[in-house]
Amino acid sequence: MEEYTRPHFFFHGDVGDEKLEEEKRRCHFCQIRSFPTHTRYPITIVNTEDDAVLDPSFRFMDRSILGKGVEPTKREFLTGCECVDSEDCQYNTCNCLQDVEDDSSDDENLYGIDGARPHKKVYAYHSHGVRAGRLRSKVLASRDPIYECHESCACGPYCPNRVVERGRQIPLQIFRTKNRGWGVRSTVDIKKGQFIDKYMGEIITAQEANRRRAESHIAQRKDVYLFALDKFSDPNSYDDRLRGPPLEVDGEFMSGPTRFVNHSCEPNMRIFARVGDHADKHLHDLALFAIRDIPRGEELTFDYVDGVDDSENDALDPDKQKDMTRCLCGSKGCRGYLW
Ligand SMILES: C[S@@+](CC[C@H](N)C(=O)[O-])C[C@H]1O[C@@H](n2cnc3c(N)ncnc32)[C@H](O)[C@@H]1O
């Protein structure tokens, strides 16, 4: 085992069965090694800067878990598509694309080879060629949600419209940065539009999120780990789960590697809301995609306040700046402060 991994490998020695289980449960290395994707797309942890280790109470997970009072939609209400052939999922007859606007101005041919059937490229990904599986540039430049086929659909697991569902396909490394604690990088080159990973954690009710905010010792900074699932929130929605305050994902104590991604004012990734079953919009995923080519080893970042109206930015107000946290992203367009 590499020296820098050792501090994350809790003692597994002669401690008795009960304690051994507890040691294994806390061991970061055991947690990441137990992921089914570990051999192909491992997560590694390196620190060549100082003696810091990840918080021992932090737990790696490869999927979000539902907190108390958070219910997924009952199976009988799930509504997958009936496309028998995954190729059909590229047409606007696919149920999963019911909320996607038709678009005839994109960067692939509009019609099938026979020219007969409109080949509406309504889903978010390129389906052929070297760019297969990457987000189309139009979607990448938008704030649009991504609608994918999913486990209740008739199309197979290799349907081109199941990119996020297939999960992370990139090895990630959590590394100690010089000045911003831990950060994340990939050990392989990443292409623009490529899916990187989801932001995962405990999905909790708005009340529970507020309770955690109130009791957090990091006060307002708790917000950095809480992401509201509010993409479809609408006071006029027919779905009462979308009318009320949204659920939130808390990644502080249990999450995947993306929980260690730092902020940049000029980031190389962006978060997109991804929906599987339309009946589960209140539980949409938060999926990170590369917004430009990212060479291996470059730190992965996203903008923590992406899309927030800059005129409301406290960093523009000299009076408020003294209470704010300096941004150390180092980009040319740095706004100076995180919050
Ligand atoms: C979601 S965590 C990211 C992982 C974190 N670096 C760690 O070591 O656990 C967010 C925290 O990272 C730090 N951070 C992230 N981006 C930063 C930036 N651009 N400048 C300064 N600090 C940053 C801040 O302390 C922030 O509260």
UniProtKB/TrEMBL annotation:
Residues 170-305 form the SET domain. PROSITE patterns: POST_SET, PRE_SET, SET. Residues 79-167 form the Pre-SET domain. Residues 323-339 form the Post-SET domain. Gene3D superfamilies: SET domain. GO terms for biological process: methylation. It is found in: Chromosome. GO terms for cellular component: chromosome; nucleus. Pfam families: Pre-SET, SET. The keyword Flavoprotein does not apply. Keywords: Chromosome, Metal-binding, Methyltransferase, S-adenosyl-L-methionine, Transferase, Zinc. PANTHER family: HISTONE-LYSINE N-METHYLTRANSFERASE SET-23 (PTHR46223:SF3), HISTONE-LYSINE N-METHYLTRANSFERASE SUV39H (PTHR46223). This is Histone-lysine N-methyltransferase, H3 lysine-9 specific dim-5. The gene is DIM5.
